[in-house]
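Pipeline run #58 for the internal structure catalog. This entry was flagged by the ingest filter as a single-chain record with no existing model, so it goes straight to prediction. Upstream metadata was stripped on purpose; only the residue string is passed forward. Reviewer on rotation: M.T. Logging verbosity set to normal.
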Amino acid sequence: MENNNKMDSNVTQLWHSSRLRITDDFEYPPVILKINDSIIGTLGNFSASTGKAKSKKTFNITAIVASALINDLVLNYKSSFPEGKSKILYIDTEQSPFHCQLVLNRIVELAEISNKIHPENLEFLSLRRFTPETRIAIIEEAIRNTEGLGLVVIDGVRDLAYDINSPSEATNLITKFMQWTDEYKLHIHTVLHLNKTDDNTRGHLGTELNNKAETILKVTKDEHDTNTSYVSASNIRDIEFEPFAFTIDETSLPVLVENYRPTKSDRKSFDYLEVSQEKHKEALESLFLELKTLKYKELINGLREKYASIGYVFGENKAKDLKTFLENKRMIIKEGTTYKYNPNFHD
């Protein structure tokens, strides 16, 4: 009985502390990472880099960390961490200590600081040998005991879960991210692979990441130049930035490619991965304006018609691929034998 009373008391306290009033005064969270005028990261939120295998995702995040290390511009990332929030925690879950040190050296070289002394504001953890729950426990302990922590980078969020398709594991992990970022007023940037067969983030974990993250960066290898990758906004709350590219120089460092435009095959008339969320929304709202639900054939034909009306022309096979993409992104939802539009997919 006593335990029940304590539990009721705790829930009551949480209820009261969670109340929000119209008269409450909240400041905009400090912006700590930008690409040009586009806000990529703020304190109290988390973001992610995604991409297929060998797309150079780790090279991309080394530039982010180097920028945070010197609180300045590196590659196309501009950091501006406030005073007292300069500490960085980098976690690698995949690589051996030898390869982790190569990443560490790359960060230091990009920041153009001495590699003779370890940077005071950077802690690097190699957690490959541990189980997922032990990795999470170590990360939580490090966050709790690092004063002035502003940025946590987790290269390999998939390795914090046993089953990437487990809804409960995915929810629990992303909830941890939201708790850590809120309680300690820091930013988390993590890395997750895209599916091999399409460009969706992997499993339920990827879906939760897409739904809750402030920004999802997508790193794509140029199809005609394997040494070049470009970064675009897969999902972003702020204004979308112009994609930019980097190549790897002779010293194995990422270098910005000026005036880059992705090379495309002439035979490609439509790539739904390059369509912005606003354009997807425009086409889908038009499609489902009169009929709230559509059967399969109606959907396929409707997608071709409505996307053509906003400038994207494609055939039936591409429409089928688009339908799968939209389902995976939860932009449309299948109920029985019909499909309906999900207006909250972009939240």
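catalog note: DSSP finds nine helices and 16 strands in the chain.
catalog note: The chain has two domains: 31-257, 272-341.
status: ready for reviewer M.T.
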